[in-house]
Design brief:
Blueprint (H helix, E strand, L loop, with lengths): L5 H5 L2 E10 L6 H15 L4 E7 L13 E7 L2 E5 L5 E5 L5 H22 L16 H7 L2 E13 L4 E14 L4 E17 L2 E21 L2 E19 L7 E19 L4 E12 L5 E3 L2 E4 L4 E13 L6
Parallel strand pairs: 1-2, 1-3
Antiparallel strand pairs: 3-4, 4-5, 6-7, 6-15, 7-8, 8-9, 9-10, 10-11, 11-12, 12-15, 13-14
Helix pairs in contact: 2-3
């Protein structure tokens, strides 16, 4: 039989206010509350437990007549405000999602148990300053640079041409990669198509400014949409076998793009993504030979892009 201080026996309940700034798998309020109830029961503490949720620290209800504490959860990081201004920080990112709430509950209940034994009536004064988000969370929200390289396949509705290309993109990533602004340059190498008896060869160099935005559906997965605008320089030639009088045109065409992208954060730096792409060309010159159209300028291209990239953060960020 454990001997508890008279101050602990006189108290009727212990309270914990949980403020969740952002949610990750395994640390939503219901999971945390259930885990705390189990650990509290296992610890056989002499007080009833009261766990409440609040949108912010100042919205927490008044504490009970027993020990109280404030638990701040930001993503996979938790901060428990403890006695005499002390804080307990715990990073739960490495833990399996199903174990995160239980790991956190064991630390929280252990602290309550210790302070109840010491007879401390209050663990934290909610009137004092509440710490900001953990340093790692601030680092993720800080601006970062990004560079990606990708392979692209596109099907042009005019003439049914299949096009293969590479893309290079760089820019600025904001708000934990939920917003990106960048510049993309592509290269479609010289490729051949046949419209009997003509051989059509074409190459293109597109350049677009990109605005991309979205959100996380999982700590490691983002879904974003993007809009792009720019131009494409292209060169097209047509020839007939055994004839020297080939025809060639060059020109620049305005270009608009839209895409939906799914991104996997493979590591803290490496990103792998797949995107569906729709491109529209505003104009473009066709090619005729002796009154016969041998090349129709494409108007729409639909395609798929696979990209690999890196996120470049400022190492001086705290």
């Amino acid at each position: 039989m454990q001997a508890w201080p008279a101050a602990a026996r006189a108290q009727s309940s212990a309270s914990l206010c949980v403020v969740t700034r952002s949610v990750v798998e395994g640390l939503d309020f219901d999971c945390v509350r259930s885990a705390l109830a189990l650990e509290w029961k296992k610890a056989r503490l002499p007080l009833e437990q009261r766990v409440v949720a609040a949108p912010a620290a100042e919205a927490c209800p008044p504490g009970s007549d027993g020990p109280s504490a404030l638990l701040m959860i930001t993503g996979a990081e938790a901060v428990l405000l403890g006695p005499a201004g002390a804080t307990l920080r715990q990073d739960l990112e490495p833990a399996v999602p199903v174990d995160r709430a239980q790991d956190l509950a064991r630390r929280v209940v252990s602290l309550f148990s210790t302070e109840i034994r010491r007879g401390h009536p209050v663990l934290v004064d909610l009137a004092r300053d509440v710490p900001g988000p953990p340093a790692e969370h601030r680092k993720r929200d800080a601006p970062a640079g990004y560079i990606t390289v990708g392979g692209r396949y596109g099907y042009q509705t005019s003439g049914g041409q299949h096009r293969f290309a590479t893309d290079l993109e760089g820019g600025v990533s904001l708000y934990d990669e939920r917003l990106q602004i960048g510049l993309r340059v592509g290269f479609e190498p010289d490729q051949e198509a046949t419209r009997d008896p003509f051989r059509i060869r074409s190459l293109a160099v597109p350049m677009t400014a990109q605005l991309r935005g979205g959100g996380r559906v999982h700590p490691r997965i983002l879904v974003r949409g993007a809009l792009g605008a720019g131009f494409e320089w292209r060169q097209v030639s047509a020839s007939v076998p055994d004839r020297p009088d080939a025809r060639q045109i060059t020109g620049t065409v305005p270009l608009l793009e839209a895409e939906v992208e799914a991104v996997v954060a493979a590591t803290s730096v490496l990103r792998v993504s797949v995107a569906g792409l729709l491109r529209g060309f505003l104009g473009g010159e066709g090619l005729s030979w002796q009154g016969r159209t041998v090349y129709d300028a494409p108007r729409v291209t639909v395609g798929l892009t696979i990209r690999v990239g890196v996120l470049v953060r400022d190492r001086r960020q705290p």
